[in-house]
Write a structure and sequence with these properties.
160 residues; alpha/beta; 5 helices; 23% strand; globular
Length: 160
Amino acid sequence: MTSLAQSAGFAGLLLPNGVIPLLAAFSRDAVLMALARHAATELGLPDMLVKEALRTREALGSTSFGAGVAIPHARLAGLDRCHAVIARLPQPIDWQSSDGQPVDVAVLLLSPDGPGTDHLKALARISRCLRDPATLPGIRAAADAAAIRGVISGDVRVTA
């Protein structure tokens, strides 16, 4: 991973346009498709490639993290490092979460295909950041993309 990816939280994993303050999607499949389309455009990949990789992974089991968060993820050939996109949803949706909570925050993670450990390390970084007691309320209360990015990096504290 690059030095930028080593920054606090997981802000270093976010694509330049990787914060979507309000993703107009109202089902799990619609969220996956919208996130795939957004990331594919940012990365110059075919969106069907990203969509199918996410659907295939989600078919193995829910990528819900709990506490109203899902972390859909996939490995893709052609990537040189891990990339993330975070989105808030306009209304919570069923993601078949083990804790039963609907999801209103989704973090997409795309990683290089292959045997490397970058994918697991990136998932762990995202998980650690989201477990911080101030992070999720801060993401949910943030006014815009810059504030969400600031919450994730630890540079901004947003009070709900």
